[in-house]
């Protein structure tokens, strides 16, 4: 009886281990403040490409994604990491092409935003400081209309 209870407890704790994560992400390893995951995940949410001077100076010309609540719950989060609610695409040029974004913002604007459902892979979670998580954009499954972003 005790062995059966222990086995059930171990099975219940298995999803909490860092080696495996729901929806296909699996921890490959950790180095310093980075944790690298492999697998593929489909997420929905909002993307932004901010091209104002302050954002370009801080983050560079990146397309970043802000997952909706359901998608955010399926992304890797380390217990000791910041509570990040976004990630940027590590394959920036391909992301701008796949999301059909212009090279420069429209006159009088500082970027573009929109909604999309995308498949991502190769997730890298960063912890601490002014850093951002990264993911590889595999493909766009669905995309809404783009909206220009006002300058700050």
Q: What fraction of residues sit in β-strands?
A: 35-45%
Number of helices: 4
User: Span between N and C termini?
Assistant: 64 Å
**What would you call the shape?**
globular
- Which sheet architecture does the biggest sheet show? 5 strands, mixed, barrel
**What's the helical proportion of residues?**
10-25%
How many DSSP E strands? 7
Give the SSE string.
HEEHEHEHEEE
Adjacency order of strands in the biggest sheet? 2-3-4-6-5
- Derived from helix and strand composition plus strand pairing, the structural class reads alpha+beta
Output the radius of gyration. Answer: 18 Å
Give the overall pLDDT as a whole number: 83
Unreliable segments of 5+ consecutive residues: 1-22
